[in-house]
Protein backbone atom coordinates (compact mmCIF):
# COMPACT_ATOMS: atom_id res chain seq x y z
CA UNK A 1 0.00 0.00 0.00
CA UNK A 2 1.74 3.13 -1.24
CA UNK A 3 -0.61 5.67 0.37
CA UNK A 4 -0.68 7.24 3.83
CA UNK A 5 -3.56 7.58 6.27
CA UNK A 6 -4.10 9.83 9.26
CA UNK A 7 -3.32 7.68 12.31
CA UNK A 8 -5.36 9.58 14.89
CA UNK A 9 -7.75 12.47 15.39
CA UNK A 10 -9.02 14.02 18.63
CA UNK A 11 -12.52 15.47 19.07
CA UNK A 12 -13.36 17.77 21.96
CA UNK A 13 -16.55 17.14 23.92
CA UNK A 14 -19.78 18.10 22.24
CA UNK A 15 -20.84 21.32 24.03
CA UNK A 16 -24.50 21.28 23.03
CA UNK A 17 -25.71 17.91 21.78
CA UNK A 18 -25.33 14.14 21.92
CA UNK A 19 -22.55 12.10 20.36
CA UNK A 20 -23.63 8.82 18.78
CA UNK A 21 -21.65 5.79 17.63
CA UNK A 22 -22.70 3.27 15.01
CA UNK A 23 -21.21 -0.07 14.02
CA UNK A 24 -20.54 -1.51 10.58
CA UNK A 25 -23.19 -0.53 8.02
CA UNK A 26 -21.94 -2.28 4.87
CA UNK A 27 -23.93 -0.24 2.39
CA UNK A 28 -27.24 -0.35 4.26
CA UNK A 29 -28.02 3.33 3.69
CA UNK A 30 -31.81 3.05 3.98
CA UNK A 31 -31.56 1.12 7.24
CA UNK A 32 -29.30 3.80 8.67
CA UNK A 33 -31.66 6.60 7.67
CA UNK A 34 -34.57 4.76 9.30
CA UNK A 35 -32.55 4.27 12.47
CA UNK A 36 -31.52 7.92 12.55
CA UNK A 37 -35.12 9.04 12.17
CA UNK A 38 -36.21 6.76 15.00
CA UNK A 39 -33.39 7.85 17.30
CA UNK A 40 -34.35 11.50 17.33
CA UNK A 41 -30.82 12.55 16.44
CA UNK A 42 -30.53 16.31 15.91
CA UNK A 43 -28.13 17.20 13.07
CA UNK A 44 -27.88 20.76 14.34
CA UNK A 45 -26.13 19.79 17.58
CA UNK A 46 -25.50 16.03 17.57
CA UNK A 47 -22.60 14.14 15.98
CA UNK A 48 -22.50 10.66 14.48
CA UNK A 49 -19.31 8.59 14.61
CA UNK A 50 -19.12 5.51 12.40
CA UNK A 51 -16.77 2.63 13.15
CA UNK A 52 -15.72 1.88 9.58
CA UNK A 53 -16.88 -0.73 7.07
CA UNK A 54 -19.39 1.75 5.76
CA UNK A 55 -19.17 0.04 2.36
CA UNK A 56 -19.44 -3.38 0.64
CA UNK A 57 -21.92 -6.27 0.67
CA UNK A 58 -25.01 -4.10 1.02
CA UNK A 59 -27.02 -2.47 -1.79
CA UNK A 60 -26.04 1.21 -1.41
CA UNK A 61 -22.31 1.38 -0.78
CA UNK A 62 -21.60 4.37 -3.00
CA UNK A 63 -24.60 6.37 -1.79
CA UNK A 64 -23.78 5.73 1.86
CA UNK A 65 -20.09 6.51 1.41
CA UNK A 66 -20.76 9.76 -0.41
CA UNK A 67 -23.35 10.81 2.18
CA UNK A 68 -20.96 10.11 5.05
CA UNK A 69 -18.16 12.03 3.35
CA UNK A 70 -20.19 15.19 2.71
CA UNK A 71 -22.43 15.32 5.81
CA UNK A 72 -20.76 17.76 8.23
CA UNK A 73 -21.95 16.10 11.45
CA UNK A 74 -20.86 12.58 10.41
CA UNK A 75 -17.37 11.19 11.02
CA UNK A 76 -15.80 7.76 10.66
CA UNK A 77 -12.68 5.73 11.19
CA UNK A 78 -11.25 3.61 8.39
CA UNK A 79 -12.31 -0.04 8.35
CA UNK A 80 -10.68 -2.94 6.53
CA UNK A 81 -13.19 -2.59 3.69
CA UNK A 82 -12.32 1.08 3.19
CA UNK A 83 -8.64 0.16 3.42
CA UNK A 84 -8.99 -2.27 0.53
CA UNK A 85 -11.17 0.12 -1.48
CA UNK A 86 -8.48 2.78 -1.16
CA UNK A 87 -5.69 0.35 -2.00
CA UNK A 88 -7.61 -1.10 -4.93
CA UNK A 89 -7.89 2.31 -6.56
CA UNK A 90 -4.16 2.16 -7.27
CA UNK A 91 -3.31 -1.54 -7.36
CA UNK A 92 -5.29 -3.98 -9.58
CA UNK A 93 -4.39 -7.01 -7.45
CA UNK A 94 -5.85 -5.34 -4.37
CA UNK A 95 -8.94 -4.30 -6.32
CA UNK A 96 -9.54 -8.01 -6.95
CA UNK A 97 -9.12 -8.71 -3.25
CA UNK A 98 -11.57 -5.92 -2.43
CA UNK A 99 -14.06 -7.37 -4.89
CA UNK A 100 -13.77 -10.76 -3.19
CA UNK A 101 -15.00 -9.38 0.16
CA UNK A 102 -18.02 -7.54 -1.21
CA UNK A 103 -16.52 -4.70 -3.20
CA UNK A 104 -18.10 -5.57 -6.55
CA UNK A 105 -19.86 -2.20 -6.58
CA UNK A 106 -16.60 -0.48 -7.56
CA UNK A 107 -16.83 -2.27 -10.92
CA UNK A 108 -19.61 0.18 -11.75
CA UNK A 109 -17.25 3.13 -11.21
CA UNK A 110 -14.96 4.56 -13.83
CA UNK A 111 -11.31 4.66 -12.66
CA UNK A 112 -11.36 8.42 -12.01
CA UNK A 113 -14.43 8.15 -9.77
CA UNK A 114 -12.91 5.22 -7.89
CA UNK A 115 -9.71 7.19 -7.29
CA UNK A 116 -11.68 10.25 -6.22
CA UNK A 117 -13.73 8.34 -3.65
CA UNK A 118 -10.60 6.61 -2.37
CA UNK A 119 -8.75 9.91 -2.01
CA UNK A 120 -11.63 11.61 -0.22
CA UNK A 121 -11.98 8.69 2.16
CA UNK A 122 -8.24 8.59 2.83
CA UNK A 123 -8.06 12.33 3.45
CA UNK A 124 -11.24 12.60 5.54
CA UNK A 125 -11.15 9.61 7.87
CA UNK A 126 -8.43 8.59 10.35
CA UNK A 127 -7.60 5.12 11.61
CA UNK A 128 -8.42 6.03 15.22
CA UNK A 129 -10.39 8.70 17.05
CA UNK A 130 -10.36 9.89 20.64
CA UNK A 131 -13.70 11.40 21.60
CA UNK A 132 -13.94 13.48 24.77
CA UNK A 133 -17.17 13.06 26.73
CA UNK A 134 -17.29 15.05 29.95
CA UNK A 135 -14.41 13.78 32.10
CA UNK A 136 -14.14 10.62 30.01
CA UNK A 137 -12.35 9.79 26.79
CA UNK A 138 -13.61 7.16 24.36
CA UNK A 139 -11.39 5.55 21.76
CA UNK A 140 -12.84 4.57 18.38
CA UNK A 141 -11.08 2.07 16.12
CA UNK A 142 -12.52 -0.36 13.60
CA UNK A 143 -11.19 -3.74 14.76
CA UNK A 144 -9.55 -3.29 18.15
CA UNK A 145 -7.01 -1.14 19.93
CA UNK A 146 -3.62 -1.69 18.30
CA UNK A 147 -1.87 -1.15 21.66
CA UNK A 148 -2.47 -1.94 25.32
CA UNK A 149 -2.27 1.75 26.21
CA UNK A 150 -4.38 4.26 24.27
CA UNK A 151 -1.72 6.90 24.79
CA UNK A 152 0.52 4.83 22.52
CA UNK A 153 -2.26 4.79 19.92
CA UNK A 154 -2.61 8.56 20.07
CA UNK A 155 1.15 9.05 19.64
CA UNK A 156 1.68 6.47 16.92
CA UNK A 157 2.97 7.60 13.53
CA UNK A 158 1.41 6.13 10.42
CA UNK A 159 2.83 2.81 9.31
CA UNK A 160 1.36 0.03 7.22
CA UNK A 161 1.52 -2.25 10.27
CA UNK A 162 -0.42 0.28 12.34
CA UNK A 163 -3.12 0.46 9.66
CA UNK A 164 -3.43 -3.32 9.57
CA UNK A 165 -3.52 -3.58 13.37
CA UNK A 166 -6.38 -1.07 13.53
CA UNK A 167 -8.52 -2.73 10.87
CA UNK A 168 -8.07 -6.52 10.80
CA UNK A 169 -7.37 -8.49 14.04
CA UNK A 170 -9.94 -9.35 16.71
CA UNK A 171 -8.01 -11.37 19.29
CA UNK A 172 -8.86 -8.90 22.08
CA UNK A 173 -12.54 -9.79 21.68
CA UNK A 174 -11.69 -13.47 22.05
CA UNK A 175 -9.34 -13.11 25.01
CA UNK A 176 -9.73 -12.25 28.65
CA UNK A 177 -11.10 -9.13 30.28
CA UNK A 178 -7.98 -7.00 29.94
CA UNK A 179 -8.60 -3.25 29.75
CA UNK A 180 -6.91 -0.83 27.42
CA UNK A 181 -5.11 1.64 29.66
CA UNK A 182 -5.19 5.40 29.25
CA UNK A 183 -8.79 5.66 28.06
CA UNK A 184 -12.24 5.18 29.56
CA UNK A 185 -13.58 2.93 26.81
CA UNK A 186 -12.66 1.63 23.35
CA UNK A 187 -15.44 0.98 20.84
CA UNK A 188 -15.03 -1.17 17.73
CA UNK A 189 -17.03 -3.08 15.13
CA UNK A 190 -15.59 -5.56 12.61
CA UNK A 191 -16.32 -9.00 14.00
CA UNK A 192 -19.98 -9.64 13.10
CA UNK A 193 -21.88 -11.03 16.09
CA UNK A 194 -25.50 -11.29 17.19
CA UNK A 195 -24.86 -9.41 20.42
CA UNK A 196 -22.64 -6.66 21.74
CA UNK A 197 -19.33 -8.00 23.11
CA UNK A 198 -17.96 -6.39 26.26
CA UNK A 199 -14.49 -7.13 27.63
CA UNK A 200 -13.41 -4.82 30.46
CA UNK A 201 -13.47 -1.34 28.87
CA UNK A 202 -13.61 -2.63 25.29
CA UNK A 203 -16.90 -2.90 23.39
CA UNK A 204 -17.64 -4.36 19.93
CA UNK A 205 -20.96 -3.44 18.30
CA UNK A 206 -20.93 -5.02 14.80
CA UNK A 207 -24.38 -6.60 15.05
CA UNK A 208 -26.30 -5.40 11.97
CA UNK A 209 -25.59 -8.36 9.70
CA UNK A 210 -26.74 -10.88 12.33
CA UNK A 211 -29.70 -9.01 13.80
CA UNK A 212 -30.96 -6.70 11.06
CA UNK A 213 -30.90 -3.85 13.58
CA UNK A 214 -28.57 -0.89 13.09
CA UNK A 215 -26.19 -0.69 16.11
CA UNK A 216 -26.71 3.01 16.78
CA UNK A 217 -26.35 4.28 20.32
CA UNK A 218 -25.30 7.36 22.30
CA UNK A 219 -21.80 7.37 23.74
CA UNK A 220 -23.40 7.47 27.19
CA UNK A 221 -24.67 3.91 26.58
CA UNK A 222 -21.13 2.71 25.91
CA UNK A 223 -19.92 4.33 29.12
CA UNK A 224 -22.78 2.78 31.09
CA UNK A 225 -21.79 -0.67 29.81
CA UNK A 226 -18.16 -0.11 30.72
CA UNK A 227 -19.11 1.02 34.22
CA UNK A 228 -21.26 -2.09 34.59
CA UNK A 229 -18.36 -4.30 33.52
CA UNK A 230 -16.12 -2.60 36.08
CA UNK A 231 -18.60 -3.30 38.88
CA UNK A 232 -18.68 -7.00 37.99
CA UNK A 233 -14.92 -7.48 37.95
From TrEMBL:
The domain of life for this entry's organism is Bacteria
MF term (GO), any = phosphatase activity
Domain spans labelled Calcineurin-like phosphoesterase: 20-152
| Gene Ontology BP annotations | RNA decapping
Record-linked Pfam families: Metallophos
Cellular component aspect of the GO annotation: cytoplasm
Cite the InterPro entries for this sequence: Ap4A_hydrolase (IPR050126), Calcineurin-like_PHP (IPR004843), Metallo-depent_PP-like (IPR029052)
The protein here is known as: Serine/threonine protein phosphatase 1
The organism encoding this protein is: Marinobacter segnicrescens
Instruction: Provide the organism lineage as a comma list.
Output: Bacteria, Pseudomonadati, Pseudomonadota, Gammaproteobacteria, Pseudomonadales
